[in-house]
User: Which sequence fits this backbone?
């Protein structure tokens, strides 16, 4: 992570904190060095931007990596349902595959 990239993403977020992409980009950037902050941004997305399908894979994977399998399963399941509802079938398949892999570990 470069400070310039993080600073730029924080500036975008400050400009428009309601844009889910800004929050998503910050969450992904923080995954590299500050898991607690990444989790906070993913939680914000899950709460305030339920239709932002890209969130679900990374958020669930984070919970899985934190050994919070129950929460990870909940996030995968919700993401699958929302992706199907929004007719984002490729995302739904990818989420289902990741969910299945986690359940059979």
Assistant:
């Amino acid at each position: 992570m470069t400070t310039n990239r993080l600073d730029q993403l924080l500036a975008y977020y400050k400009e428009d904190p309601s844009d889910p992409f800004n929050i998503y980009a910050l969450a992904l950037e923080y995954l590299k060095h500050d898991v607690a902050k990444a989790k906070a941004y993913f939680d914000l997305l899950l709460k305030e931007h339920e239709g932002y399908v890209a969130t679900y894979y990374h958020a669930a994977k984070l919970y899985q990596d934190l050994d919070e399998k129950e929460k990870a399963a909940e996030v995968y399941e919700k993401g699958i349902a929302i992706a199907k509802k929004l007719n984002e079938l490729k995302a739904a398949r990818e989420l289902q595959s990741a969910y299945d892999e986690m359940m059979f570990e």
Q: What stands out?
A: Residues 83 and 91 are 6 Å apart (CA to CA). The chain has a mean pLDDT of 95. Helices lie at 3-15, 20-31, 35-48, 54-65, 69-85, 89-103.
